[in-house]
Design brief:
heterodimer; A: alpha/beta; Rossmann fold; 6-stranded mixed sheet; 4-stranded antiparallel sheet; 36% helix; globular; B: alpha+beta; 17 helices; 12 strands; binds magnesium ion
Chain lengths: 227, 405
């Protein structure tokens, strides 16, 4: 099943002054269960592409369909609902609310979804367990390592039962050990639970773990390799 | 969850929150203190001039107002003296014959108003004997006793038992002079009386000007309480053809004092609240701007604008409101303290206060409703302080979060 379908997608920044074509006529589809890396040199348009898929940034040309629904013409509040219900986000940093504990951070998104308290409890406990951060459940982000913080972020992204998880350079701030650990968990979730991950990265070790690698250069797909 | 998140957020910058909270508490306290202080001062001024000068109700001939003197005497005075047996709200009455005149001592002479009174009646209405600081109340001198204020006595350089000469005009506009002896020297709470009123016995003045014992041009009534003022006035009006006026009608300054109290209360409140408002806005703006990335992230993962708005409003409310009760209680306790401990003694400034007819000891006065009013004002201030930062927060772009660190 297709979870993402991009057709002739373009993004032009500053169209009125000094136009920058950050994404140029990209067509692409992502199937459920993929473990896909978007790679390429700095400034090639990875973040721009992920933002358009995630409904965080408007496209300039073309269309974005997620789960069979076009999102390009949605209103701001429709997009908010869409992001909340269907997409899990993991950012490079500032993923977590500093005053909440790991467990509370995971539960926060379920509160936004109005999930009932019992399901919420069970789900957050289960996710903490699977991320291997059960013992850190009552710690605040500042008391967690970078790797642990990113694992909480992945747990938070999954807690909302999204169609897929978008992760923009999730390991950029991590050392190699933590990078490995995070990738192990993501790969395992992908293998065992068929969770779709789309992530951007610079890191060759991360690229090596991907099952599909899409290479961007100057906003254009230069290669798309399934492994 | 948003409630508890907001609560946790306000403790992120403890010092900053503490500053706002203290400012609110101190602001609220200072309003209570200033308003109580002001009320106390103004209350004393109006009470003093009500109790010791104007009394609740006065009766005159309607012509007296434009031509105060002997020509317009109260009509049917004996009937007015009986009022208090007919109108139950009246506590006491004093009939006066008031004439302008001069008082002379060997040193100097001064223009004054002569109040010819019945000592017992006047005592019952204005409590005049309580202000004596030397001599006594008409009893130590057999013939022609007079009471002078301390101020006049000093100007005239006279003491108890000194002789002074009173000069007045009689009904036929003849000049009459009589020798009086100082029976007592008083210091009233009314600046007007201190500055130029002397008291004689009614019969002594009558003799001097060849008038009768039943000639009066003013009746002053003390009521049992202020509540029945208008009602009593109406009852009196039905029974007499004379002019009946309440102290408010006689002296417009009572209304001015009350209005002034209300206005100054508002001015104090507005000034303090404006200061707090800017403090709150400033603090909350800082709190929002510091969290640009975090708020962007919350928007990105799917938190609605209205929830972000709510979160910031709640934070502002909490930070502004938790300490308001502290200020209210502190204000209340300050007032209780001064009440229990004999008031706030400002005798140092008694001179200035007395000029306006105030008291040297302050008993804080504040209406209960002021506490509720203040709580409401703080809530409104918090709401106003919340709006701008909350709008700022809502308008942050979710993209901010994912952009470069
Ligand atoms: N808000 C913006 N306004 C104008 N130009 C922008 C904006 N955001 C990105 N760009 C430009 O668009 C291009 C793509 O940027 P983008 O951030 O998507 O690259 P990236 O592949 O994510 O880079 P990196 O690996 O450094 O994160 C770049 O040339 C960048 O300068
Ligand atoms: Mg990027």
């Amino acid at each position: 099943m297709k979870v993402i379908e991009l057709k002739s997608l373009s993004k032009i920044y500053n169209p009125d002054t000094i136009p920058v074509r950050a994404i140029n006529d990209v067509s692409l589809s992502v199937e459920e269960g993929e473990f896909t890396a978007i790679v390429g040199p700095s400034g090639c348009g990875k973040t721009t592409l992920l933002n358009m898929i995630g409904g965080l940034d408007a496209r300039s040309e073309g269309s974005v369909e997620v789960g069979g629904v076009s999102i390009q013409d949605m209103s701001e509040s429709q997009l908010t609902t869409f992001r909340l219900q269907h997409i899990g986000f993991v950012f490079q940093a500032y993923n977590l609310i500093p005053v909440l504990t790991a467990k509370e951070n995971i539960e926060f998104i379920m509160v936004l979804q109005n999930m009932d308290a019992k399901t919420m409890q069970e789900r957050s406990d289960d996710l903490l367990d699977r991320m291997g951060i059960k013992d850190q459940r009552d710690r605040r982000p500042s008391e967690l390592s970078g790797g642990q913080q990113q694992r909480v972020a992945v747990a938070r992204a999954l807690a909302s039962r999204p169609k897929f998880v978008l992760a923009d350079e999730p390991t950029a701030n991590l050392d190699s050990g933590s990078t490995e650990a995070l990738l192990d968990i993501m790969a395992k979730l992908n293998e065992e639970e068929n969770i779709t991950f789309i992530f951007s990265t610079h890191d060759q070790r991360v690229i090596d773990r991907a099952k599909r690698v899409i290479m961007l250069e100057d906003g254009v797909i230069v290669s798309d390799e399934h492994r | 969850m948003i409630l508890s998140l907001a609560w946790k957020n306000i403790w992120r910058s403890k010092r900053r929150s503490f500053v706002v909270m203290s400012a609110v508490a101190i602001g609220v306290w200072s309003i209570i203190f200033m308003v109580s202080f002001y009320n106390s001062m103004m209350g004393a001024i109006s009470r003093n001039s009500l109790q010791h000068d104007y009394s609740h109700i006065q009766i005159h001939h309607e012509g007296y107002l434009s031509d105060p003197g002997l020509d317009f005497q109260v009509k049917n005075p004996s009937k007015l003296l009986e009022f208090h047996s007919q109108i139950s709200d009246i506590k006491a009455v004093s009939g006066r014959l008031i004439v302008n005149g001069m008082v002379a001592s060997p040193k100097t002479n001064l223009g004054i108003q002569v109040y010819a009174i019945d000592p017992a009646d006047e005592a019952a209405v204005t409590n005049l004997p309580s202000f004596l600081i030397a001599g006594d109340y008409f009893t130590n001198i057999k013939r022609n006793p007079i009471l002078l204020s301390q101020k006049l006595a000093e100007k005239l350089k006279v003491k108890v038992r000194s002789k002074v000469v009173i000069t007045v005009q009689d009904l036929e506009v003849n000049i009459r002079a009589g020798a009086f002896r100082v029976s007592g020297i008083f210091h009233s709470k009314s600046p007007r009386i201190n500055n130029g009123v002397v008291y004689l016995r009614h019969q002594d003045l009558s003799k001097l000007i060849n008038s009768t014992d039943t000639s009066f041009n003013e009746f002053a009534y003390l009521l049992k309480d202020n509540e029945s003022l208008i009602q009593t006035k109406k009852k009196m009006e039905m029974k007499t053809k004379n002019l009946v006026r309440t102290y408010r009608e006689i002296a417009p300054e009572f209304d001015m004092i009350e209005e002034g109290s209300a206005i100054s209360k508002q001015v104090i409140t507005v000034i303090v609240m404006l200061a707090l408002l800017f403090g709150i806005i400033n603090t909350m703006l800082m709190a929002v701007l510091e969290r640009t990335k975090e708020i962007g992230m919350l928007r990105a993962i799917g938190m609605f604008k209205r929830k972000i708005f709510l979160m910031i409003v709640l934070e502002t409310f909490m930070i502004s409101l938790v300490s308001a009760p502290v200020g209210l209680i502190a204000g209340f306790l300050t007032n209780v303290y001064f009440e229990k401990n004999g008031g706030m003694d400002l005798s140092q400034y008694a001179g200035a206060l007395e000029q306006y007819g105030g008291d040297a000891i302050f008993y804080p006065e504040i209406a209960q409703s002021t506490y509720f009013f203040l709580m409401l004002v703080v809530i409104i201030t918090a709401l106003m302080g919340a709006i701008y930062p909350a709008i700022k927060a809502v308008n942050l772009k979710p993209l901010e979060a994912i952009r470069k660190v």
